[in-house]
Design goal:
The protein has 271 residues and is an alpha+beta fold. It has two domains: 36 residues; 218 residues, no CATH class. It has nine helices and four strands, in the order H-H-H-H-H-H-H-E-H-E-E-H-E. Strand 2 and strand 3 form a beta hairpin.
Length: 271
């Protein structure tokens, strides 16, 4: 009889132990299921701080690249506006070589052989911006190579606007040139850009871009300031109000004053 009681007792203990194990397993499975559901519904939870840093680096490289294109166009203004020369030899291929050389000079990054440390996002978007920039130069060949005409109006601002528009139409990233006193209304700043530009205008010259996450971290805003150089003053300098060669009133700007900025927006859910 005592043996029967022992057997029954063991059976009861085993059933209780199995129930305890079952209650331990259920919460674990439940937590795993909840984690899976959250990862599917909220993919951004899996994003790390490194991902944000990659987006920030990409934005800064894009602003640098577009500005490099502007620099190359500015350096070749005498050639572009030479009325005595037909074929200038300023082809998309020549432009690409000059841009890649200058980009390497400014960043140390050789886009002909991108380093493994460069994110796939940056590689993809820089290649897209390069293609858009080359297309702008390609489409301007007729104007550039016209003989007998001096000023062609193919200036850094014109190039930048066209390249930025082509690039933005092909990607999830918005890039534009902006200024507080735009000649081209498409360069009119939005509320955020206007606020940052006004702040930059009161600060010392700096090449450091403004990088900021807004909308609860859902959108990256980056502005790289652009300042007037000596070459800019032919159209934007003194005397203020006098029409320049392109027909716009001069702004009366001085070397080193804030001209505007290259502005970029990248959503965090950029994929």
């Amino acid at each position: 009889m005592f043996r029967n009681i022992m057997i029954k007792g063991n059976a009861v203990w085993q059933r209780g132990n199995e129930k305890a194990k079952m209650f331990m397993i259920v919460p674990v499975k439940a937590f795993r299921l909840i984690g899976l559901i959250l990862s599917l519904l909220c993919p951004q939870i899996g994003w790390t701080q490194d991902s944000n840093k990659e987006i920030e680096q990409t934005a800064q490289l894009l602003t640098t690249f577009l500005n490099v294109g502007r620099v190359v166009i500015e350096r070749n203004q005498l050639l572009i506006n030479d009325p005595g020369k037909g074929d200038k030899g300023f082809t998309p291929e020549v432009f690409e070589r000059l841009v890649l050389d200058e980009f390497f000079h400014q960043t140390g990054i050789d886009l002909k052989h991108p380093p493994s440390s460069l994110s796939s996002l940056a590689k993809e978007l820089l290649a897209t911006l390069l293609l858009a920039s080359k297309e702008v130069v390609r489409d301007a060949q007729f104007v550039i190579n016209q003989r007998g005409i001096g000023y062609k109006n193919f200036v850094p601002a014109t190039f930048g606007s066209q390249a930025a528009r082509r690039f933005s139409n092909r990607s999830h990233v918005t890039i534009k040139q902006t200024t507080l006193n735009p000649r081209n209304l498409k360069n009119t700043p939005d509320a955020y850009e206007e606020r940052v530009l006004k702040r930059l205008a009161t600060q010392p010259t700096s090449t450091t871009p403004i990088v900021e996450w807004i909308d609860d971290g859902r959108l990256l805003r980056t502005l790289m300031p652009i300042y007037y150089s000596e070459d800019c003053l032919a159209c934007h300098g003194n005397p203020k109000g006098i029409l320049d060669i392109s027909g716009y009133p001069r702004e009366g700007a001085q070397v080193g004053e804030l001209a505007g900025a290259i502005s970029i927006q990248i959503p965090s859910d950029h994929r």
